[in-house]
Amino acid sequence: MKTPPTPNPAAAALAALLLLVFPTYGFSQSETPEKIETEKSRSKVVSAAKAVKAEEEILQLEAFTVTTGYRSPKAIDQIPGAIKLITTAEIAGTQMLTDDATAVLSRIVPGYAPATQAMNNTGETLRGRVALRLFDGISQTTPLREGSRNGTFTDMDVVGRIEVINGPSASEGIGAVGGIINYISKSPEKEGSEAVLRSKFSGQGEDDSINWRVGFNYFHKAGNKDLVVGTSFSDRGISYDANGRRQGMSQSGSIHDSESQNIFIKAGYTFGENNEQRATLTVSRFHIEGKGNYVFEFGDRALGIPDSARRGKPLNAKTEFNDFNQYALAYNHANLLGGSLNVQIYKASQAMRFLTEDGSDRQDPLIAPLGTLVDQSEINSQKRGLRSSWFHKELFGVAGLEVNLGFDVLDETAQQKLALTDRVWVPPMNFTSKAPFVQASYTRGPVTVSGGVRREDGELQVDDYTTTYFRNRVFVRGGTLEYQETIPNAGLIVRLPSNWSVFASYSKGYTLPNVGIPLRNVNVPNKSVAGILDLQAVIADNKEAGVTWNGKKASLNASYYKSYSDFGVSLTVDPVTRDFVMQRRPVDLKGWEVSGEFRPNKLFRFNATYSHTKGMTRTTQTGPLTRQMGMASISPDKLNLSATWKFSDKGSMTLYQDNLFKRDINIGASGEEHTSGLTLHHLTVNYDTQWGYLSLGVENLTNKFYILPWSQIDQFLNYFAGRGRVVSLSHTLKF
User: Fold this and answer.
1) Closest CA to 296 of 285, 286, 284, 311
2) pLDDT one-digit tens code per residue, 660-708
3) Which listed residue, 117, 332, 478, 507, has the most CB atoms within 10 A of its CB?
4) Residue of 376, 406, 410 whose CA lies nearest to 391
């Protein structure tokens, strides 16, 4: 297959900057109807006549606030770092094209890697590291045994916005060495009741490629009571590439040929003097499971024939699934000792079953003759926790001084089993953590300084266990490991004339290193949990500086960062099992991102984001950092463009262009890797009719054939082509 030429990254970056000057494309910080409404409310400080003009011509600083990492509302222009808010409208725009839960992140967040088009999110890093995913502040990540399946945990229709904190941060607890991605559920916005019925139908012209979905959300607000109820059901067929060949069934989990159900309930009650107190109960239950109509069919990487699927039932196997449930009770007191108290207690369970395999690491001659045993793995995690904070503005009467104190508690148990034979693959692991923190900021005129510290005090307990036949059935003595770390952060923002501002920050990130992998890979006798060095925590130092400009008809955001971990994590491929092997070696990351927008008038909007990350590590345990990290950790440079035309008061059209650049690394050395460049186009059209809101989405508009970026590296059963053209019709009815 001939690879189309791709532009040089530096040239592309220069071209992108020029786009801000000429009215064709511009860098994007996506403008949405919600953002326009926010800007309207801010314009009330001027006269009514001037407000209309301001709405049409001036792109003001985003008046949004975030809670992620701060536990209380914090204005974006007072946060020293790269923050991205993804609104309801932006989420809905991606849903018109695809049901991939992480596609909206890949398209809008500069440092987020390309989506895998599967249930697993292997390689979907944020700035080269794994990010902590939260749902209403509750972790969906299982760092004890990271299965790369935590991106598909709810129906996106109940998500109101996504707050993305780029770069290492310990503010929300263990797991955020790459940043934080917090999915915030929807809430009623007005008095009375409103129901929203959404349906979607899509396909690729083949009988078994049909997908359909129906979802119903109910919102009710009456005085001091409010309620959200959301439910949905999806049925997905198989997917085809642009050559009409079925996509392969990913061994880490596929979303095609699957069904999913979701129910979400959030009930709130406001009470007390001046309605200063509030209690909120949230229930979320999500399940996606394969239908088992297809089995894996090998392709041929040498001949450029991608892996595929054929009709059939998996032998002696259950279908793969994701099962995510969580229950939370939150309490807020808006005037306790002059500040605001927030407390949340929660319980969450996560189960992930993978596809059947008959590889060498599944065999055991005591169960079946070698080469005949079929098995599949399943990860289970149970979490209980408490998150609390107390926030005070103008503490001690000092104007501009804000202080946030808090204390978090986590108790998590996780394990991985070979489900069909009920064998222990990764033994039960119990992690407990107690973490107090303090965060403060002070604003005086155009300057905001901030800083804080979090103290992690954790304990990991593992019982005695015996490894599998593939790992020589060795006995491993259990034990308890202590994880203690003090994690600081500091930042500075200076707001300059003419709507410019600059920032600089330093922060540490802290996580566990996917503990299950080194535990299951022990293959020599006389080992103990306490003696496994790979179980040491991952600590990352992050330094970042950036600039923001907001002017008439255009805006620009740019940042440069450096992130280093002395005992980091990188992944290589085992030559026998073709599975990932974790390496504990230094990791040095550097990168930069640019985003912005250009809006020449009320009818047109042009968006763009560009990101570049380079990661270096060692080839061996000692020596210089000469090995460039590849697709398993670091995505090639990407440039995403979009243009929106509001062709009438009731309709709009958006054309997307996703660009991933060619990359060749470690030529002639260990870790040599080649990835091809890629350009895809997508289209959405929306129109508001008297019968409801109609949407047309066309993914891969030109029906281009390509190999998925993460499939271009040779690992276990992963040689997949990307989806060909998919046409989707959506209908939204509010009543």
Assistant:
1) 311
2) 999 999 999 888 899 999 999 999 999 999 999 999 999 999 999 999 9
3) 507
4) 406
